[in-house]
Each structure stands twice: as C-alpha cells, then as structure tokens.
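Tutorial handout. Part one gives the primary structure; part two gives the three-dimensional structure as tokens.
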Amino acid sequence: MIFSLFSLFIPLVYGTDYETSVWPQPANFKTGGQVVSVNPPLLFHTVGGEIETLTQAYARYTSIIFPHLTDKINISTVKNVEFVTEVNVEVQDRSEAYPDINTDESYELTIPDDSKSIVISSQTIYGALLALETLSQLIIFNFEEEMYKIPNVPISIQDAPRYPHRGMLLDTSRHFQPIPELRRTIDALSYAKYNVLHWHVVDTQSFPFQSLSSPRLWEGAYSEQERYSHSDILGLIEYGRARGIRIMIEFDMPGHGASWCTGYPDICPSPNCLQPLDPSSSRTFPLIDALLGECTGYAPGAGMFPYSFIHLGGDEVDYSCWDKSPKIQKWAQSQNLSDSEAIYAYFVDWAASTARTQGRTPVQWVEVFEHFGSALDNNTIVHVWKDKTTLNTVVLAGYRALLSDEDLWYLDHLETTWELMYNNEPTSVLSPQANASLILGGESCMWGETVDASDLDNTVWPRAAAVAERLWTPLALMNVTAAEPRLETFRCLLTQRGIGAAPVTNIHARFAPKDPGSCYLQRRLISKEN
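Part two.
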C-alpha cells in the first residue's frame, strides 16, 4: 500500500508530470504544459539600474534556488532543450524606504516557453521580493539529468495580498530567543509571504531589550547573556526590511510589567506587588515616553522601528495591586479617577496618545475597546484575540482591526491543527452592515511559555503557513482539501531551507515523524489517530 501511494505522489515532486506548487496560492495563476531548463546561475537584471536591496536578494535567492552543485553546462552544445538564462526585474517605484501598511506588494511574474528571459514587474521593491520567492518555488532540480527545470510553462502570475498586515507574534519574554533564531524566523516568514513580525519583546517574566534612555530596564532579563543590544535590534530591523518583513514592537502596559521593576522598582506599586505599573510614580510616564521615543524617533537621534504601527498591549490587567496601594488610590483621587477601572482607562489612553504624538498609530488588545467602546479614539487599531465575534462589534463601531483569535490562531495551542487554522475566515462573523475593509489583516501568535530555541521551528511551522495563505489568497481560491498537498510540498521546502518544520498532519504540533519515509509522504504515513 505504501508503495502505491508513493508512486502516486512522487510525480508531484520529481517527474515530468510535476504539479506546480506555490505557497501561498497566487491570486491569478496560469500554467501550460511545457518544460524549460534553467542555466545556473540565473543572471538577474534590474531594469533602469541596480537597486541594492534587490541586488542582495538576487544573491540570496541564487543560493536558495540552486542548492545542488552541477558541472557547468555549455548550453550551446545541448540540443532540443530550451534554456532560461536571465530574469529581468522592472520596478516602478525604486525607493528602498521602509515598507508600511500602504506599501504596494503586487507583482507579475511571466515565464515563457520560447524565450531565455523570465520577467518580473512590480510597483515596489517589496513586490519584487515576493515575486522572487514565488520564482524560487517554481524551479526544481532533476537529479537524473542533473539540470534545473521549470515545468508547466508558460507560466503567468498576477498576484497581490488580500490583507496588508500579515503578521506572526513572537514572544521572547517567556523564553529568550537568540538573534539567529529570530533571523531564521524572519526568513521563514518571508518564504510564506508574511510581512510583519510582531515582536512581543518583554513581559512579566523578563525584559531583554536594551533601552538607552532607561539603561537599567534590561536588568530584568533572565541573565546577562539573554539580552538584545541596541545594535542587535537595529541589525534585526534591517535584516527584516531586506526580506520585506517589517517589525512591530510591543510594550504591553500597564499589565505584564513586573520585569520593568528589577531595574526601576519605583515604577511598580510595591516590592511585593509588581504589576500593573504604578501611574502615581513621578518616574513611570516619563520613562515610558522616553522608551517609546527611542523606538519611534521622537527622541533626538533615535527611531529604531520605522513601522507606523506600535503595539501598546493593554490586556489582562489585574487591578489588585492598585486597589491595595494607598499611594495609588490617593493619586487617583487627585486625578478625579473613581476606581481602578478608571485608572486603567487613564493609563491606556495616555499610552495611545503618547504614541500618536510621536507619529505612530497605536495598536491595543481588544480589552481597551471593551472598556471604551465607541468612545475609543478612532485612530486606534483594535487587536482582537478573545471571542472572535467581537470583531464584528469592533468593525461595526468603525474601528480598524487585526484578528488573532486565541481559539484558532494561537500557535502555542498544540492541539489546533493546520486545517482549523486554515479554515478560520476573518469575515465569517461579520454582519451584512459591517465594513470588511476595516479588517487590516491578522496574526498567528507564538506565545513563549513552552517554546525556546529547541522547539520554536517545529511549533510554528508548518501551521503558521496555513494562516499565511488565509491572509494572502483571495477567499474564492481557499480550499483546505486542495491545499494539503501544496502544504506538504511547502513543509519540505522549509526543511530543505533549514527551517525545522514538523509533519503537516500531526494532531499535536511538533510531533516527530511516526515512521521512516519521505518528507513528501508524511501525510500518508502518519495516522491521524496516533
């Protein structure tokens, strides 16, 4: 039985009947029935002159596309074989400025069957980067002929994302993730056509982030070796930009702030009751203002995170420490705040106003909307993570929103299968009156309580790819049954590129393969009952 299944599947990968597979599914994808050979290395040419970001990408993708060493082919001596030798890339806007929510990521990719040239056209360099990723998934290596091939040509792709914000949250507070892990995660995000790494960098447990304005904050790190220096952070931001991945930083406040107290105990209610942060302290708000200013560029000489969105948290605030603090209660009375709920409102409104003053759009968890309702400033983006039906309420109230849906898009929920993640349609809860365009996209969430460098890859991947396709591909093309063999192929592509993705059909994430067998056969060999 295994042999017959193998014989059915293997042509999808290696044979002349190779089924062209791209993840995520492009918006418009037309193929033919011919095969062309590719002469490595392809010559990449940017029409109108070199663009440094693309030149770097050409070198990167050359190593990705051509992993196998071959004897140099003299194409002039090979008869009856059509060779592709070059890729011409035409970009309308040649700017290398940092991408943002309105950046055009569309692209066109044409691979003829009667020409030596592949053509990529895009409005921006970031669309061109996405086209290079698609191209990399179309080229295969034929081991019998020791030649690279593109099957099913001519190929014509016109592609653009469904949503402009396609993110994955990564929590580096519950367990520290070293810089090489973060870089590899950014690589993998770019392969799946995500465009945002939501960096939940600090939380109750640790504060690994170096602040130049408040240099004792990172005393809250687990250890001196589990920190991110200023240079580390700047390097990571540029590493992401070069791959089309913007980083949205989050400082969750006023809750989840106990680690801030290690370096600055006076911004917390008491030595025995550390969070939420203490609004009555004369140091708290100036410290936060300066910290955000480092990130946004509001502080002179700063500006680490160019993305126009900044996440300010606002979730899961336990008022107990405020209620028990005479100092905080006295301060609240001086501000005409009646209770701790009013203190919460004051704090999160102050944080959002500060972000706006510094030229950023605040993103806050849905609890902020639950408190303010339609009184919330309309420039706030509401991040829905609890009851998904709240998304409808948020949109009906006229607010822009992101969806994370703890039931279906939390990667730390190991029992949530890729199929459940794939089938989670953001608009399914919207009423006819709701404006679906207010949904800017969404994020899968990798909370770090049980994840460190030893198991990050196989917890995130390939399930996060299911969310990526939901956020990229037009709704009419979404089909979970048809997606499975493509996801199997994409999972194998990830492993070939050094991303330790788990088998696709695990009933729990990060299970190891059950039996010996091909990467492409894991879905056949692993029983969903085991």
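Part three, for discussion. The chain has 16 helices and 16 strands. The longest helix spans residues 340-357.
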